Amino acid sequence: MTIPAEATVREVMTPDPITVTPDTPLRQAIELLANRRISGLPVLKEDSTLAGVISEAELMWQESGVNRPPYITLLDSVIFLENPATYEKELHKALGQQVKDVMSEKVTTIAPDTTLREAARLMHRKEVPRLIVVDPNAAPSVVGIITRGDVIRYMASHQDDA
């Protein structure tokens, strides 16, 4: 099954996705994810621009904890074998109480008129489960979200077209 060349992200995306702000309490974001049975939420700043994304992966820090970076001691000095700043960042995530403490600022975006084939390639190449659909000519600019599941459902519903 191949995706028709003319199919676009706009046809398949979930429009007007549920969003949170950086200051949203983490408990509220967790409840939204669980109650709506979704795996990620765009995080919007006060001006409705995209700040990041919070997903199940980021929330796993809450339960998985943080491993102390390996180190050696030499003449009463501690020498870290990994960057200790990484540990501090992970610790901050594990103890976070607001979305901004846990969210990822690395977000892969796509335009609504991009072909569905290109969206599928981008998700595969970047190994991301979702793309935030952004239209710079709209306000707010986040107009949708598309997931791997959306692409698979599209493929399943169009099997007879092949």
Describe what this molecule looks like in 3D.
The protein is built from 8 helices and 8 strands, in the order H-E-H-E-E-H-H-E-E-H-H-E-H-E-E-H. By secondary structure, the chain is α+β, with helices and mostly antiparallel strands. Strands 1-8-7-6 form a 4-stranded mixed β-sheet. Strands 2-3 form a two-stranded antiparallel sheet. A two-stranded antiparallel ribbon has the order 4-5. Strand 4 and strand 5 form a beta hairpin. The mean pLDDT is 83.
The general outline is globular
Structural class: alpha+beta
Q: Strand share of the residues?
A: 15-25%
The main sheet orders its strands as 1-8-7-6
Report the radius of gyration as a whole number of Å. Answer: 19 Å
Give a short account of the largest sheet: 4 strands, mixed
* Ends apart, CA distance between termini: 6 Å
- Taking pLDDT < 50 over at least 5 consecutive residues as the criterion, the unreliable ranges are none
From N to C, what is the helix and strand string?
HEHEEHHEEHHEHEEH
Report the average pLDDT across residues: 83
- Residues in helix, %: 25-40%
Figure out the total of helices.
8
Report the count of strand segments: 8
